[in-house]
Every structure is written in C-alpha cells, then in structure tokens.
C-alpha cells in the first residue's frame, strides 16, 4: 500500500542521526512501507542529503515550540518544547495511514503489522501507563485533526509541555475505549522500563520489536570504537541497556557512517566514531565521569529508591541478573 508510511522527525543534526539509524533499521527488516522524515530548518545540508538516501521523502516543516518552561522543567527536559513539531505529521494527507516513530527508536524486527491498527494506537507510557507514550503511534493524517490539535495546544497547552501531554488530552479515551488501540509494550520498549521491572524484561524482553531510547541521554551522545566495536563513555546514570546501545552503534557504523562520509567528507568528528586509539569526538567529553568513591549499601539503596541506580556499575543489568538467578536457584 503506497499510501501507508512510517514517519519520523528531526529538528537538529543529532536527532537526524537517530532518524538515519531508525530508517536503516526499518529497511533492514524489509518494510514494504515508504519512509518519510520531517525535518526542521536547522538540519544541515549534509544531514539532509544523507536522510534523502535513506528516506523516500524528506519534508521541511516549521518548528513548533510550546515554550512551556514550567511543565518541561517538571520532566527535567527543557529541550522538549519543540516536540510540538511532531503534530505536523497530521498534515501528511497524501497518505491514508501512518506510523510515527521518534528518532530515538530502533526497530528490531518487521513491524508492518502495525498498519492493521487504527488511529490512535500506541503503547502505554512506562511512567504513567494510563497515558500512551507518543514515541510510536498509528494515526490517520487529516488537516481537520491537525487544526483541532493546534487549537488544543493554544487553548489548553500541554500538561507535560511536549506533544505527549497534548495528544493524551486530545485522545483522552485511549486508556478505556478500545483495547485494540493499546499496542503491546514490545512495540515501544522504553529503555527506562527495563530497570523498573527487570523480571518482566527477562521474561518478555526477547520479543521486543522496537526499542525506545527515551530519556535525556541518547545513543548518539556516546562514541563508538569501530576497531573494537565498543561503546565508549556510557555514564553511571544512563538508564540504557548496553546491548541495545551497542546494536544502535553497530547499525550506525555498518550502514550510516559510509553515507555520512560521502556527504561530510572523510573527517569522522561528526560521527561519534573512533578507530582504535584515534579519538576525535571531543563533543562527548562531558559524558566521561571520574570514578566515584565506593558507596555503602544503605546509600545505594537510597539512590536506587530515588531512581538513581548505578546502571553501569553495581546495579548493572548483568549484576542484577546474576542476583535474580541466584534467588531462582
Ligand atoms: N525531537 C527533535 N528535536 C529535538 C527534540 C526532539 O527532532 O530537539 C523529536 C525527535 O523525533 C525525538 C522526539 O521529538 O525522538 C521526541 O523527543 P525525545 O525522543 O528526545 O523525547 P523522549 O522520548 O526522550 O521523551
Ligand atoms: C515523551 C515521549 C516523546 C515525547 C515527549 C514530550 O516522553 O517519549 O515521544 O515527544 O514525551 O511530550
Ligand atoms: Mn523518544
């Protein structure tokens, strides 16, 4: 069906890198659908050129910003006002049905079956499961719906300052009206949920079809050594599963890096990739933390309860898994 497409959004070059990897992950899993990227005016020419190589259509849209500093501060994400730009996806009226995917998602298997769902289908948000997460959703483009959404933004605003708040208020019966509009969580596995309910991840995680790197720190904030195939700079407070992070970078280095080189020239500073000892991406330096002093188990418990687990150290997935295994035995 030529009128069904996957859609993503990137207003910056960093999110454009995410969109490149997402697009490649959809193609690698043989989607039969077209791919559309919405971009903002600040995306650079070389990044646009790379997106054109991966996406069937790259469409320039105006950046819409909620400028709602108060609500965004509650999420500790002042950067997310621009996610109102996502609402432009309803203007893609050349298409009858679409699946929107955040640029920080990665597809692990073919998900074309999502097009059997109706507007508005989405998976629960891990923070408040009676809300849907707007990182992956099925919708029908319509100028009328777009107009109503924009009115809703200007009249009522958004309770989180971003698109997810306004979309949940608009499609307010999602939680109760029709269970077929609840996508299984495996279509939007937020990395944050892995650690909040680890046994469930152990039980069901292998079925995941889409990983969502939800949160402040994104895969492209790290760097990757192409010689040793290792991700560098994963910090203590990053709640990201190392294997998914590695998969993102492996796809980046195997399928996107060469396309970027064609456009940017052979200077790897833009890419986040290093080769052996040559480290070029100084933009990532802020992520390397000095080693922390050892913590008492009481302090660790407190930190865990405050949502500050040491995901890359003592509380790493491997360590928790070992502990669970020892209990189960
Ligand atoms: N986005 C963007 N530019 C920005 C912030 C967000 O293009 O400066 C787009 C991008 O598609 C991104 C989505 O809006 O994936 C939602 O933002 P993000 O994924 O950072 O939110 P989270 O899922 O972490 O809450
Ligand atoms: C969320 C979603 C993201 C959305 C943002 C702002 O956490 O993951 O897709 O853009 O909130 O509402
Ligand atoms: Mn996201």
Automatic annotation (TrEMBL):
Annotated transmembrane regions: none
Q: What is this protein called?
A: glycogenin glucosyltransferase
SUPFAM superfamilies in UniProt:
Nucleotide-diphospho-sugar transferases
Superkingdom of origin = Eukaryota
Gene Ontology molecular-function annotations: glycogenin glucosyltransferase activity; glycosyltransferase activity; metal ion binding
* Function as written in the Swiss-Prot or TrEMBL entry: Glycogenin participates in the glycogen biosynthetic process along with glycogen synthase and glycogen branching enzyme. It catalyzes the formation of a short alpha (1,4)-glucosyl chain covalently attached via a glucose 1-O-tyrosyl linkage to internal tyrosine residues and these chains act as primers for the elongation reaction catalyzed by glycogen synthase. Self-glucosylating initiator of glycogen synthesis. It catalyzes the formation of a short alpha (1,4)-glucosyl chain covalently attached via a glucose 1-O-tyrosyl linkage to internal tyrosine residues and these chains act as primers for the elongation reaction catalyzed by glycogen synthase.
Q: Where is this chain's protein located in or outside the cell?
A: Cytoplasm
UniProt xrefs under InterPro entries: Glyco_trans_8, GNT1/Glycosyltrans_8, Nucleotide-diphossugar_trans
What Enzyme Commission number(s) appear in the record? 2.4.1.186
PANTHER family found in the cross-reference section: GLYCOGENIN SUBFAMILY MEMBER
- Per the UniProt entry, what are the Gene Ontology biological process annotations, in alphabetical order? glycogen biosynthetic process
Of which family is this protein a member? Belongs to the glycosyltransferase 8 family. Glycogenin subfamily.
Arranged from A to Z, the UniProt key words for this protein are: Cytoplasm, Glycogen biosynthesis, Glycoprotein, Manganese, Metal-binding, Transferase
What Gene3D superfamilies does the record point to?
Spore Coat Polysaccharide Biosynthesis Protein SpsA, Chain A (3.90.550.10)
Q: What is its main location?
A: cytoplasm
| Name of the gene | gyg1a
Cite a GO CC annotation.
cytoplasm
């Amino acid at each position: 069906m030529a009128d069904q497409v996957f859609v993503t959004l990137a207003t910056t070059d960093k999110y454009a890198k995410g969109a490149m990897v997402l697009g490649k992950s959809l193609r690698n899993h043989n989607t039969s659908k077209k791919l559309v990227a919405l971009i903002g005016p600040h995306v650079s020419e070389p990044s646009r050129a790379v997106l054109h190589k991966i996406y069937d259509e790259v469409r320039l849209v105006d950046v819409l910003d909620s400028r709602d500093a108060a609500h965004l501060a509650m999420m500790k994400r002042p950067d997310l006002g621009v996610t109102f730009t996502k609402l432009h996806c309803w203007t893609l009226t050349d298409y009858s049905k679409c699946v929107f995917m955040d640029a920080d998602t990665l597809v692990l298997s073919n998900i074309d079956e999502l097009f059997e769902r109706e507007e508005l289908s989405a998976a629960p948000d891990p923070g408040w499961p009676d809300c849907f997460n707007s990182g992956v959703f099925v919708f029908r483009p319509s100028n009328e719906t777009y107009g109503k959404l924009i009115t809703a933004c200007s009249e009522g605003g958004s309770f989180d300052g971003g698109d997810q708040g306004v979309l949940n208020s608009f499609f307010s019966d999602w939680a109760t009206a029709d269970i077929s509009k609840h996508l299984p969580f495996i279509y939007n596995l937020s990395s944050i949920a892995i650690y909040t309910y680890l046994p469930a991840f152990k039980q069901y995680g292998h079925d995941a079809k889409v990983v969502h790197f939800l949160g402040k720190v994104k895969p492209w904030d790290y760097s990757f050594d192409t010689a040793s195939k290792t991700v560098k700079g994963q910090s203590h407070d990053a709640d990201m599963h190392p294997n998914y992070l590695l998969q993102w970078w492996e796809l980046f280095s195997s399928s996107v890096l060469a396309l970027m080189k064609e456009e940017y020239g052979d200077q790897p500073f833009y890419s986040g990739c290093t080769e052996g000892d040559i480290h070029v991406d100084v933009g990532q330096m802020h992520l390397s933390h000095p080693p922390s002093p050892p913590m008492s188990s009481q302090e660790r418990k407190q930190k865990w309860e405050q949502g500050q687990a040491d995901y890359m150290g003592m509380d790493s997935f491997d360590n928790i898994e070992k502990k669970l295994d020892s209990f189960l035995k």
